[in-house]
Design brief:
This protein has 286 residues and is an alpha/beta fold. 41% of the residues lie in helices and 15% in strands. The protein is built from nine helices and nine strands.
Amino acid sequence: MQIGDHSGQKVLKMNIQSLFGLNGKVALVTGGATGIGRMAAEGLVCAGATVLMASRKKGACEAAAAELNALGASGKAIGFVGDVGSEEGVAALVASVKERADKLDILMNNAGITWGEQLGQFPYHAWERVMNVNVTGLFHLTQALLPMLKASGTVDDPARVVNVGSVMGEREMGDGAYSYSASKAAVHHLTRILGKELAGHAITVNALAPGPFVSKMTAFATANEDGREKVGKEVPIGRVGRDEDIAGCMLFLCGKGGAYVTGAIIPVSGGINVMSGPDIFAPAQN
């Protein structure tokens, strides 16, 4: 296709591969064995990237990598154990990445946990655990991998960090997951801060803010078709998220098409992010 410019600049010829292809790129996806991490990893592999998939369950991650490699895509996946829930775990994960790759172009901070309990009974230890994984681990892993990201990024093709937040970090939605919602709001703010501070180092930092997707975390409500349909009816667009919704966002943010975007929180929530209160004047006009 051709992209014109009304300023009189030269017309550029681009193709889909030049905008979204990731041949030769190396990515790390934490929590990559299942859910949103698995969806993202598939998109990255299909675009040509070598994807390091880390999760707490080594077997699950290796199995997920084998499934992706069986697709016959231009990229490949490597699964191994990794836990961002402690300082020692972050250090071990960084060492594992360096053992498997001599560069890092893309970091997807997807690993996360949740805890649900009614207000008045929410346990102290649960709050701490969720924050350790969702916020502390995310920050310290990013910090530890900055040298590799800085070495890969250029002005024309920055290194990319994609954090996984949540629509629950944007809207006043608790659903008993108080620490989870608060942690995702923190992820969004950290994304903006790091987006500002790392732009000069040729690193973009953006976040996805997903709504309901089918995953282990949401299995209590989305494990079967009936549950997915009920949840989808509460979403303005009328359905739960699909694999391609995540993969498409990742290819945009990580490919050439997203090279000029940083500090953005991308709503992947089917419109939940713009839901508001009732139409208070409408009833009086009927």
